[in-house]
Amino acid sequence: MPPIARPKSGSNTQSYMFGSCGALLGESYFSADGDDDISKVEKELVLSWRGDPLQTFSDWTIIVATSEFDSRTYHVHKSILSVGPRSSRYFSRLFMKGCNQYNQSQSSTRIELDEQDADSFPLFLDFMYDTSPDADDDESLTLNVNEDFTTSNAVSLRHLARVFDCEGLMLAVNKFIQKDLSLKTGPVYLEQAHLYQDERLIESAKRLCIENFSRLDTRSITRLPLELFRSIMTAVIDRSKSAHDISVEEEDALSYHLSEVVCQYFEKHPDRMTVELLLELTNESVMPKIASEPAIGFTALARELNPREIKSDSDEWRGLVALCQRCAHAVVGEYGWKDFNITSALEEYLYGPCANDGSSTKLDSLLFATSFAAALERAQNDYQSVDSGSSKSRKQTEKNSTGER
Question: Does residue 252 sit in the same domain as residue 378?
Answer without folding.
Answer: yes
